[in-house]
Records
---
Amino acid sequence: MEMRLEKATENDAQSILDSQVKAFFPLMNKYKDYDTNPANENIETVITRINRPNGNFYKILAEDNFVGAICVFWKENAEFWISPMFILPAYQGKGLAQKSITLIEEMFPQAISWELATLLEEKRICYLYEKMGFNKTGVSKKLNDNTTLIFYKKVC
């Protein structure tokens, strides 16, 4: 499947937010994480990410269909952070998240490291990141009685 990343603009903000809600809503309900789950964000947060001077929000396009998005930002020393990244439910399990990570890494060859966080209880997502070369940092944050955020890092 032909896939590419395209830099998002403010005109994409509503479709990104709507898709983000579709992708994250099941996790929000499952873990009762109403404070930090991206399904509970607003349009202003998406616009802020799109316009961030030290980052970019990219639409994930497969066969020219919008299937998700990936947001990256960086610190001074070429340390990159991915958050959020999502694939719409209808397109999950097709290797698109893996391809998106590979493409984003190719776009930023100056990166010395990549970091992200995900839910410890979501073994499939943890497996994806570990398969892509990310390692647990040992840092975690209990979000509530139902879930824990776990941090990953990949050194280039």
---
Amino acid sequence: MTIEEVMERLAEMGTEQTKKTFLRHGAREPLFGVKVGDLKTLVKYIKKDQQLVLALYNTGNYDAMYLAGLSVNPKLLNKSTLQDWAEKAYWHGLAEYTVASAAAESNFALELAREWIEAEKETIAVCGWSTYANYLSISQDDDLDLDEIRGLLNRVEKTIHSERNRVRYVMNMFVICAGSFVKPLHDEALRVASAIGKVQVNVGNTACKVPVAEDYIHKVEQKGKIGVKKKTCIC
């Protein structure tokens, strides 16, 4: 498929209702309003052409950018492209999902997560915390720097309630991922989750809710899933 053909298909698949939902959550024009499930039907045609993937992200169209994230081969992404993607991720839907999942499965996951976490720009910092959280979900415990993760958990405990809005959200998710996916840090993450309690995030005029980390980790524990890794974090 060519970029023109893909954009035509996206235009046909979009609905006004889905578009309104995305706009209410923080997306902006241009976009068509294509449901993620419908986007996934195009992935098999896109993923064979990584130049097409890059072209889709560079359109600035939300649906095309999200489709790029679903179709990308993260191992083919270089650091400069990931940096560019992070800079263009203008709202949390792209920062927390599209960019973070691609970065987490790239060859630069930890390098970029560490850099981005320290960023002054909120969406970049969001990319950082979400990248590291996703990385925890797909990486074996023996490959993780447990001391570094402990340090980040302590940082969350001390600073989460004074952080920027969406950074609070992804910090909370980092605690959830540490407690759910990293078995050696389960107890420590659970302690931090208890300490931070309910995290307040302004989700705008939406029905979205912020999960209570302690409750979420306990639910994973009850299912016997602590330490069970994902095959992929791209979704």
